[in-house]
Amino acid sequence: MTDAGTLIEVDHLFKTYPVAEKGDRLVLDDLNFRLAPGEIVAVLGKSGSGKSTFLRIIAGLSEPSQGEVRYQGKPVTGPVRGAGMVFQSFALFPWLTVLGNVELGLEALNVPRDERRKRAEAAIDLIGLDGFKSAYPKELSGGMRQRVGFARALVINPDVLLLDEPFSALDVLTAETLRGDLVDLWRDRKIPTKSILMVSHNIEESVEMADRILIFSSDPGRIRAEIRVPLPRPRDWNSPGFRNIVDQVYTLLTTLPGGAAGKRARGEPGVEGQEFSMRIPDAPTQQLSALIDTLMEDRYRGRADLPDLAEYQNLQLDDLFVLLDGMQLLGFAHVGGGDVELTPAGKNFSNAEMDQRKKIFGEHLLGNVPLAAHIQKILKERPNHRAPASRFLTELEDHMSEEDANDTLERIINWCRYAELFAYDYDTETFRLEDDSEDA
Amino acid sequence: MRSMLWGLPVRGWQDRLRPNFWDVVAFPLLFGLLTMIVVGAGGMTKPFDLGVQQAISLDPLNLPYYALRTVLRMFIALGVSFAFTLIYAAAAAKSRMAEKILIPILDILQSIPILSFLTITVTGWIALFPGSLLGPECAAIFAIFTSQAWNMTFSLYQSLRTVPLDLQEAARMYHVGPWGRFWRLELPHAMPNLIWNMMMSVSGGWFFVVASEAFTVDGHDIALPGVGSYIAAAMAQRNLTAVGYAVAIMLVVILGYDQLLFRPLISWSRKFRSEMEPGLESDRPWFLTMLQKAGLARAFLMGFRATGRGWDQTVGRTAYLALKMVGSGLSTPMDRPRKTPRWVERGYNALLSIIALYVTYRLGAVVASQLELSEVERVFLLGLVTAVRVLVLIALATIIWVPIGVWVGLRPALTARVQPIVQFMAAFPNNLFFPVAVVLILRFHANTEIWLSPLMILGTQWYILFNVIAGAASLPRDFQYVAQNLGVSRWVWWRRLIIPAIFPAYITGALTAAGGSWNAAIVSEWVKWGPDTLTATGIGAYIHVASDQGDTARLILGTAVLCIYVILLNRLLWRRLYNYAAERMRLDDV
């Protein structure tokens, strides 16, 4: 079963989280994966696709519910030795200096003091932090902090680097430099690291760095596709080959089935209790309107290429997809083949005045989001046209975790407030029909 | 400047050990400290027998020695509190079974008046060290301990539960073991809050250290050498001059505490915070600068650290292995809480309930065997009187200090000057001023029911002022500009801007002040001045008398009732207001 030299093997991995009464929620569904020596693999997916959980299970920080993970042939039972991990939030100890933070990983390995110091200093020099040794993390900029994160991971001479969105908290320029430096170190074999596994939500970043890109679908997370990136390094973001792969990734990501919106879009029959199991994308109404307006500009005339749109609007992948999900769910746009196209309703919305917009939004909300229709129905049935939030929360919690239920309700409240369908009182946590007498 | 000492670049650690200017200050201070500890500790183990009068001389020349003893008591208590905090909070934070019982216990301990601890436990302590002054010393230290430990423990417990997940993961990923995690991650993370609470506890503790040095057991007066018993003796002899001396020496002590400990520690603890706090980057306290720059102090610290390392490596590993063998909850990673079988949990709950019922029954039996039911009713009424007193005083302090606090807090330069003074006032043991108040009451034949009351809040009102200033100072400038821009009236400015803005801080202050006032009631509702005794009706006086007469049943009853009042007020009033303020009036997530 074990291939010689393979660094990481994942077989039939499942992960579930317990949810209230209705059993468990499947987060990762039958994942199989191999990491070979000498490659960089990127994992891409929308938020909620479980890609971070996947990385944590490989790192030994979280337990799989089923299946097996092996690191260099040995089953993973706890935090893996010989793998360095870099975190999105840097995860530096604020009370330790740069040197102290870098030495931390060696201390646990019982490396003698003098050698520890020497190796830490070498790692610090390597990553370009010479001169910052005695600084505390809070004195450094974000980019410098993440360099400390990398030095801490590299000082233990890891065979594998596990990167959890390491560049996403950095500004564009800083991220680019750090990425380049890392790939150079790895290609020039200045670090003993054989392979890198990186979770990312930035398509261009993944195409720039990776030999292979795994594309995760969400709800539950599955490996939907794998794209090889045969481009020579260093890679030029503007070369036709590069753009071509970026387009491919967008196309794959947008044609993936995933979540309730996808099922509805494909006209699959509604599951029972769908009004409670559907997840509402966290798409603010102001951004939705702005994106619809952008799509109506002369540049796009109702149809846009997603990579181009993302760049033009300076949108992160997650933000873009959340908005696209929202537009699709409400029936304002179709997404497919790496493109987004406004529906006639979307065009109407864009041409309308403020009040008319709210009306259109409300109609589409009631027509496409069963939870909104459900809340309205209940409020209409009740003699005083009021209902406590807890009533709907309990219903939601039968189908999702408490946290998801809260999120879902919060999002529906925002949408419905914009559409003026019904009002919500924060202090008393009650819904009421909007046409009720309004008290200050 | 230091990097070019004597015109030579200074590099490497050996050079940093060269003597410098700060050594001139550090040397005498360090050795003075060592000498003081030796002298003070020597006095604590002198022989002692109950009933033999301890002579407290009013000669001011003895005061420095008395002050030394008082300070020593305080710091021994602080050390014990710290150790207690580490163990208790860690246990509560790491084990769900322990948490279930430890936290409610802490909640109740917190509401027991500190002076009740003193009288309830003193006979036990004396029995433990027969014929030695160590018995009463321990009783006093224990009382001071109880004034510090609960607060610190809560703080650490809360911090331990909020260690950022990414740091936990990083520590696990880099194989830092549970023992290492506690010292390298969890405790440092808790440090800023712990230090702050520690210093606040010490500030509050000066009151109790003074109050717990002279007390009565079974009708026998005990006086431990210290500023507190000095002032008690001065009151017994109606000597106002001596009171003045005591106030003066205490001023020096508090000033020393403020400069040598409070400020340096708070400033030092900022290094454990993950972000810079621009507003708080005040001047570095001179004493901290000295410790960090003086070569001698540095050598001292390095030796200390080396010892620590050795300790960490030998004791730490042994302890870790032991823990591993026991299979304690300490080694459970955070993301997989171990599931205890249902029946174990139920059995545990049942066991706890049985113990609680049994203890209640035994204590109830003691009280019931000696006291009538009507007495219980009377004590509840007395509690009500004191409760009214506390609330009225808090209201008065609010009316006085809120406007002043806001006025100061909105002026940054003034705030920087006033805040240290207020902190100082909060630390000063206000019971030293009681004689002055008593003399005034006697002179004007004032009503003790009314005029003894202000003593309850004399020391605790500063918490209100302190917090209001801090709350007003943290109000973003923009809010004020908006108010100015809209030209709002004074009334609207208060109602819509200032009051909501300072509310969370004010509640914190008022809650602390109320808690302190309940404690102070015991000493301020019953004050002796020579042969005269001034009393006010209330549960404080009831407890004081019961404790002086060694009346255990009444002492337990009084303490229990007071606890009930404090807990009820906390639950029904303060905690609700606090939660409301925390949720609705936070400025940081607008």
Descriptive overview:
The complex is a heterodimer of chains A (440) and B (590). With 440 residues, chain A is an alpha/beta fold. Chain A has two domains: 8-254, P-loop containing nucleotide triphosphate hydrolases (Rossmann fold), CATH 3.40.50; 276-440, Arc Repressor Mutant, subunit A (Orthogonal Bundle). Chain A is 43% helix and 20% strand. Chain A contains 17 helices and 16 strands. In chain A, the strands form four sheets. In chain A, strands 6-7-8-3-9-10 form a six-stranded mixed β-sheet, with helices on both faces. In chain A, strands 2-1-4-5 form a four-stranded antiparallel β-sheet, covered by helices on one side. Chain A has a three-stranded antiparallel β-sheet with strand order 11-13-12. In chain A, strand 7, helix 5 and strand 8 (195-200) form a beta-alpha-beta unit. In chain A, helix 3 packs across helix 4 and helix 10 packs across helix 13 (344-351). Chain A is globular, with a radius of gyration of 24 Å. Chain A starts with 7 loop residues before the first strand and ends in a 7-residue tail after the last strand. With 590 residues, chain B is mostly helical. Chain B folds into two domains: 26-289, Orthogonal Bundle (MetI-like fold); 344-590, MetI-like (MetI-like fold). Chain B is 75% helix and 3% strand. Chain B is built from 23 helices and four strands. Chain B has helices spanning 13-16, 21-44, 63-94, 96-111, 114-128, 134-160, 165-173, 178-211, 227-236, 240-269, 286-293, 295-326, 342-370, 373-409, 412-427, 434-444, 448-451, 454-458, 461-473, 477-486, 490-524, 539-548, 552-584; strands at 214-217, 220-223, 526-529, 532-535. A two-stranded antiparallel sheet of chain B has the order 1-2. In chain B, a hairpin with a 2-residue loop joins strand 3 (526-529) and strand 4 (532-535). In chain B, helix 2 crosses helix 11 (286-293), helix 3 (63-94) runs antiparallel to helix 4 and helix 8 packs across helix 15 (412-427). The two termini of chain B are 44 Å apart. Residues 1-16 and 325-337 of chain B have low confidence and may be disordered. The interface between A and B is medium-sized, with 30 and 25 residues.
